[in-house]
C-alpha cells in the first residue's frame, strides 16, 4: 500500500493554480501596504478657479485586485479538503482524506449557519453575531471543534484508538500506511505516528473532547461563583464587600501560573486533613470541590426562589428539583459519594477543574462587582425598589440581565485563557494523566524529537492555537455587537 501525499493526484493540476493565486494575493497585499504608506496623494485641478480634488492613487487601483484574488485563493484552498468527499480514496491526498473524515462536522456547520442566518433577527445577541464578519469566523472555528468533539464521541471522525500502539508505526510521517492492518481498520496514519506509535490525528481530535469539556464547564462554574459573590458585594457594599474583596485580592496577588502549578502538584493533591476515627483524608481537591461546587447550587436556588416568591407552588417545585438533582450531582462530583455509582470524576481532572474555578472566580467577582456598582444607580433599579421587589430579585432579574454583554464577552475570552492554561499544565505533565490525549500532553510528548519529527507536536499546537484564536475572534464579534445595543 502506497503512502499518501498531501494533495495526491489532485495536486498535479491544482497546486500550480493555487500557488499562482496565493502569490498574486501576497504581492497585491504587500504592494497595497507599501504604496498606501509611502505614496503621496495625487491631486488634479478640476475647475478654472484652481480648486483641487483628490485623484485616484496607484494603491487604490491595486486594492481592486485584492478581493478577487482572495476569493480565488479561498475557493482553490477549499477544493483540497472537499475533493476527498467525491474522489476515490487517496486521489485528493492527506488533505482530502482529512476533509472526508470531517464530513459530519462540515454538514453540522453548514446547517448551523443556514439556520442561524435565516432566523438571526429572532435570536437576540446570538443572531446579531452573524452581522459581524469577525464574529462569524470565530464562531465557525469554535463550532468546528465543538462538533468535532461531539462526533468523536459518536465514533464518526476518529480513525484509530488514541491510546493504541501499532508495531512499526513509531514516529512515522503523515500518510504512512498502517502496518499489519486488518479488515475494518483505517488503512493509514493520516497525520503520522508519535514516539509511542500512536495515531497523531486520533489523539488530536480526541483531545478536543478533553479541552471542550473541562474549559467551558470550569469557566461556567467560576462565573457562578463570581456572580454569586459579586452581586451582593456590589449591591449591598459595606463590610460584606470589604471582606469578599479582600479575599479576592488575596487570591489575585499570586501569579496565575504559579498558583496553578501549586494547586496541581502531586504533593498538594495528596495533602489534606485526616478525619478522626477513619482512614479517610479530606484532601485539598475535595476541600476545594466541596466549597466551590456549592455555589452553583446556591445560585440556582436563590434564582428560582427570588423569581417565583409570589408563586409558592412553582417555587417549591423548582427549588425542590434543584436541591434534589443538584445535591445528587454535588455528592458525586465533590465527594465521590454517589449512592448509585453513576456520577464520578477522576482525581486528576477534579484538581484541574477546581483549580480553574478557584483561580478564575476572583477575577469574575471583580468584573461583576464593578458592573453592579454602575448598574444599581440606573432608574429601572430604583423603579424595582419602589415596587417593593426584594434585593435578590433586583440583583438576579434586573441587574444581571443588563450586565450580560460584558459577561458573555469575558466568558468567551476566559475559556480561551483556560484552554491555554490546560495546555500549559499538560505540557509540564501536571494535572491530567500522562496518557491523556489532551493537546498540552500531546505537545509535550512530541517536543522531544521536534527537530527530527515535527508533526507530533505541531499538529496539536495548531489545534490549540486555532481554538484560542476562534474564541478571541468570537469575543471580539460579541463585543462589537453588544456595544450597538
Automatic annotation (TrEMBL):
Pfam families: BPD_transp_1. InterPro entries: BP-dependent_transpt_permease, MetI-like, MetI-like_sf. Residues 208-475 form the ABC transmembrane type-1 domain. It is found in: Cell membrane. It comes from the Bacteria. GO terms for cellular component: plasma membrane. Keywords: Cell membrane, Membrane, Transmembrane, Transmembrane helix, Transport. The chain crosses the membrane at residues 12-35, 65-92, 98-117, 129-154, 210-231, 243-264, 284-304, 316-335, 347-368, 411-432, 452-475. Its main location: membrane. The keyword Membrane applies. PANTHER family: OLIGOPEPTIDE TRANSPORT SYSTEM PERMEASE PROTEIN APPC (PTHR43386), PEPTIDE ABC TRANSPORTER PERMEASE PROTEIN (PTHR43386:SF25). This is Dipeptide transport system permease protein DppC. The lineage of its organism: Bacteria, Pseudomonadati, Pseudomonadota, Alphaproteobacteria, Rhodobacterales.
Amino acid at each position: 500500500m502506497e503512502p499518501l501525499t498531501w494533495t495526491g493526484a489532485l495536486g498535479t493540476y491544482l497546486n500550480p493554480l493555487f500557488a499562482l493565486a496565493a502569490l498574486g494575493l501576497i504581492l497585491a497585499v504587500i504592494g497595497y501596504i507599501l504604496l498606501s504608506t509611502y505614496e503621496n496623494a495625487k491631486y488634479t485641478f478640476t475647475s478654472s478657479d484652481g480648486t483641487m480634488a483628490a485623484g485616484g492613487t496607484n494603491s487604490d487601483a491595486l486594492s481592486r485586485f485584492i478581493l478577487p484574488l482572495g476569493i480565488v485563493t479561498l475557493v482553490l484552498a477549499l477544493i483540497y479538503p472537499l475533493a476527498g468527499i467525491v474522489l476515490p480514496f487517496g486521489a485528493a491526498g492527506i488533505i482530502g482524506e482529512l476533509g472526508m473524515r470531517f464530513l459530519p462536522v462540515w454538514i453540522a456547520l453548514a446547517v448551523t449557519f443556514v439556520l442561524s442566518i435565516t432566523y438571526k433577527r429572532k435570536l437576540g445577541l446570538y443572531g446579531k453575531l452573524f452581522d459581524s464578519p469577525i464574529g462569524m469566523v470565530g464562531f465557525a472555528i469554535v463550532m468546528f471543534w465543538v462538533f468535532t468533539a461531539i462526533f468523536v464521541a459518536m465514533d464518526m471522525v476518529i480513525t484509530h484508538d488514541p491510546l493504541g500502539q501499532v508495531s512499526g508505526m513509531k514516529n512515522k510521517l503523515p500518510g504512512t500506511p498502517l502496518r499489519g492492518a486488518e479488515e475494518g481498520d483505517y488503512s493509514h496514519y493520516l497525520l503520522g505516528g508519535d514516539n509511542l506509535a500512536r495515531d497523531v490525528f486520533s489523539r488530536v481530535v480526541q483531545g478536543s473532547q478533553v479541552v471542550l469539556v473541562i474549559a467551558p464547564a470550569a469557566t461556567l462554574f467560576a462565573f457562578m461563583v463570581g456572580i454569586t459573590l459579586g452581586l451582593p458585594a456590589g449591591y449591598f457594599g459595606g463590610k460584606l464587600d470589604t471582606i469578599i474583596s479582600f479575599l479576592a485580592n488575596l487570591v489575585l496577588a499570586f501569579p496565575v501560573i504559579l498558583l496553578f502549578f501549586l494547586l496541581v502538584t502531586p504533593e498538594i493533591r495528596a495533602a489534606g486533613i485526616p478525619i478522626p476515627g477513619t482512614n479517610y483524608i479530606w484532601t485539598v481537591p475535595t476541600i476545594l470541590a466541596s466549597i466551590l461546587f456549592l455555589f452553583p447550587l446556591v445560585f440556582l436556588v436563590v434564582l428560582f426562589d427570588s423569581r417565583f416568591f409570589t408563586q409558592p407552588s412553582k417555587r417549591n417545585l423548582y427549588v425542590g428539583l434543584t436541591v434534589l438533582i443538584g445535591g445528587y450531582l454535588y455528592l458525586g462530583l465533590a465527594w465521590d459519594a454517589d449512592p448509585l455509582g453513576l456520577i464520578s470524576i477522576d482525581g486528576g481532572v477534579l484538581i484541574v477543574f477546581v483549580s480553574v474555578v478557584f483561580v478564575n472566580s476572583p477575577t469574575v467577582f471583580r468584573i461583576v462587582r464593578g458592573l453592579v456598582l454602575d448598574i444599581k444607580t440606573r432608574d429601572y433599579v430604583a423603579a424595582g425598589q419602589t415596587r417593593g421587589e426584594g434585593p435578590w430579585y433586583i440583583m438576579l432579574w434586573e441587574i444581571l440581565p443588563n450586565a450580560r454583554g460584558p459577561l458573555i464577552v469575558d466568558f468567551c475570552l476566559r475559556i480561551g485563557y483556560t484552554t491555554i492554561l490546560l495546555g500549559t499544565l499538560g505540557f509540564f505533565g501536571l494535572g491530567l494523566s500522562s496518557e491523556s490525549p489532551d493537546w498540552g500532553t500531546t505537545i509535550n510528548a512530541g517536543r522531544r524529537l521536534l527537530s527530527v519529527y515535527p508533526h507530533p507536536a505541531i499538529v496539536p499546537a495548531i489545534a490549540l492555537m486555532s481554538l484560542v484564536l476562534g474564541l478571541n475572534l468570537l469575543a471580539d464579534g460579541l463585543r462589537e455587537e453588544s456595544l450597538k445595543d
